[in-house]
Specification:
alpha+beta; 4 domains; six-stranded antiparallel sheet
């Protein structure tokens, strides 16, 4: 429901620009036929109710989506009004007051949005209840109406003529109306029926009930009610002479009553803007042809410019003598690497590129992601072509991907790792770190655990995996042969390994779903790094479950072994991979199942279930059902970005 509220809020903001344009149209085109104003209010109604919108290069909307739903829920909350001054005034306050909490599942602002959506629904209910009560009261007041002619009824309790009913509408007149005023009044009400105004005004009230929080919508409904009456007056007096117009004006004055609220549902003859209507009737002249043409042209211009969204911004043409660069804090960044399909581990949403930052790239407004502890690079989420496989992009087709931008002047740009350098690196042994590979061209291929792939040639490649803020869990030189042989750069004889495999026949390139020759979700033999990690995790679980001997509360075991449990959490996605594999086997009803549940909640707090479960297996079964529900509601890209633990489980189950 919150997403619906935010979508409605975005539609209301976009429609507000159109409402303001219609206000201006009414002021400038006073001599235009009033039915054109009513037509424009119909366009406003479409803008307020239809979630889809046509795109136009002539659109003058500052922003297609002022509030990004995904940012409110998971990213840094910000408005994208399209007005820099407004953004600069509002966004710092939003960021300061509703900064994302890494330990929470959603942003604090999203919680407030939940409350706002509840208030929105309550407002809709109140508006509809008022309409129902008003209808019942009017219905009772005309219960004693006496037929006059056709669908015209006379009633003593009616103060002003009006129409009631949608399917079988009736015209109700005060009993005291007679003589010269009767004809104009009936003609006016029948003109309403001919124009189907008894449908459009209640429909307008229904739309107002949805957008009751927008003051411009209230003003629009009031002016719609007035324009309906003016258009109906014009339809009736079009062929009248001066005397007929005078008699029509007299009838208006005789039937005028104390103004009711603009949300009254009946269409009453003398209820809305009587003074303006009398003036309009007495001064009415058939518009000249050129006035009608100009008014129609203005109406079309308002519709095209304010009822359509802006077209997607095309990338700017780059100078022939310069590479595309982004500017961050006075530093230029280049994009030498191939785009990847998923955001590397540890990078967080940091905002959207400003025109100054986008420079000559044409990437104004796209999202970018930074790693909190370093500034040498960041990622943008931009259109790059269709991902044919993990590291090849077809630029002739439309596809969005993550692009890494690196500081200009970094000597690592474009460098490919060589076998000679692999031998040199292997001499460092267990002192190898992530930074030893920063100067080489690589691609992130992990779907959970952070894994970097450094291609050497068609046969050899290096895989480095682990957590960016910790020492690598493994650094392997892998051969793309049938067996997928690999050697550990920290411990194995790398020159001998290269010599033994230099004549092997290369196999197809490893894709994003494979690591060390094993597809995610397969239950075949584990890769060496998985085997080593799982053995370590098994020891940690045995240690934690080893004491205190007589405790019945699982948390007591965790408190007794804080370092071991923290090490479990630090293994992150590898721990989840281990736990999921055990839970999927079933039968995890002992203490170890409860410890695995605690690790799952600590590593993936965004997917925590607040429920009582007697065993870890019972909790996981509910967690798995929730994961399948997430799969049914979102696409794989969204799940991988916002629910990485769920994405890992679904991948292991073959459900995604």
């Amino acid at each position: 429901m919150t997403d619906i509220f935010l979508k409605t809020l975005n539609m209301s903001i976009a429609a507000s620009w159109l409402i303001l344009a219609v206000f201006l149209f009414r002021l400038v085109m006073k001599r235009a036929p009033k039915w054109l104003s009513v037509l424009l209010w119909g366009v406003v109604a479409l803008r307020l109710t239809v979630p889809l919108s046509l795109k136009s290069a002539m659109s003058l909307l500052p922003s297609n989506e002022a509030i990004v739903v995904s940012d409110i829920r998971y990213g840094a909350p910000a408005v994208n009004s399209g007005i820099p001054a407004l953004n600069n005034a509002v966004n710092p306050a939003l960021t300061e007051s509703f900064a994302p909490d890494p330990g929470a599942g959603v942003n604090p602002l999203y919680v407030w949005t939940l409350a706002a959506s509840a208030i929105w629904l309550a407002g809709i209910a109140a508006m509809l209840l008022y309409a129902l009560i008003s209808y019942v009261r009017v219905r009772r007041s005309v219960a004693e109406g006496v037929p006059c002619e056709g669908n015209v009824y006379l009633c003593d309790r009616v103060k002003s003529p009006f129409i009631l009913g949608l399917v079988r509408p009736r015209i109700y007149l005060p009993s005291h109306i007679a003589g010269a005023s009767l004809g104009p009044v009936i003609a006016h009400e029948k003109a309403h029926l001919a124009r189907r105004d008894n449908w459009w005004k209640p429909l307008g009230f229904l739309i107002l009930s949805i957008h009751w929080f927008n003051p411009l919508c209230w003003a629009a409904y009031a002016l719609l009610s007035r324009d309906i009456e003016l258009a109906c007056d014009e339809k009736v007096i079009r062929q009248m002479d001066v005397e007929g117009k005078k008699q029509y004006s007299i009838a208006l004055l005789e039937c005028s009553v104390q103004r009711r609220p603009v949300i009254s549902c009946p269409l009453a003859f003398g209820e809305v803007g009587v003074r303006e209507r009398v003036k309009n009737v007495l001064n009415y002249k058939k518009p000249a042809f050129w006035v009608i043409v100009a008014a129609v042209a203005a109406c079309v211009a308002v519709t095209v410019c304010f009822a359509t969204n802006k077209t997607d911004q095309e990338p700017a043409k780059l100078p022939s003598d310069g590479a595309p660069t982004l500017q961050m804090d006075g530093v230029s960044y280049l994009a030498p690497y191939t785009p990847v399909s998923s955001l590397p581990y540890g990078y967080e949403y940091a905002g959207k590129l400003t025109p100054e930052q986008a420079g000559n790239t044409g990437l104004r407004g796209v999202k970018y992601f930074t790693y909190p502890s370093r500034t040498e690079d960041f990622y943008t989420y931009q259109e790059c072509g269709t991902l044919v496989d993990l590291d090849r992009v077809d630029s002739t087709q439309r596809q969005w991907a993550y692009v890494r931008w690196v500081q200009e002047g970094n000597d690592a740009v474009g460098r490919r790792l060589t076998l000679d350098e692999v031998v040199m690196l292997s001499r460092k042994g267990e002192s190898l770190t992530w930074t030893d590979f920063d100067r080489y061209q690589g691609w992130e291929i992990g779907s959970g655990l952070y894994i970097m792939r450094y291609e050497i040639d068609d046969l050899f490649e290096v895989l480095v995996g682990g957590l960016p803020e910790a020492e690598p869990l493994y650094i392997y030189l892998q051969v793309r042969n049938e067996a997928g042989d690999c050697a550990d750069l920290e411990t194995d004889d790398i020159p001998a390994f290269i010599e033994a495999h230099k004549n092997d026949v290369p196999q197809p390139l490893v894709t994003d779903s494979t690591v060390g020759g094993q597809t995610a979700g397969e239950t075949a033999a584990l890769s060496p790094d998985q085997t080593e990690a799982f053995q370590t995790l098994e020891k940690l679980f045995l240690t934690i479950c080893g004491g205190p001997t007589y405790a019945s509360d699982p948390s007591a075991y965790i408190q007794a072994h804080p370092e071991e449990f923290r090490e479990l959490v630090d293994y992150s996605m590898r721990t989840l991979e281990y736990c999921f594999a055990e839970f999927l086997k079933g039968g995890q009803t002992d203490l170890r199942g409860q410890i695995m549940r605690a690790a799952l909640d600590d590593i993936a707090p965004e997917s925590r279930l607040w429920l009582e479960a007697e065993t870890g297996q019972e909790y996981f079964d509910a967690w798995k059902a929730s994961a399948l529900s997430v799969r049914d509601q979102h696409d794989a890209e969204w799940i991988e970005e916002n629910r990485p633990a769920v994405y890992l489980l679904l991948t292991m189950m073959g459900e995604i």
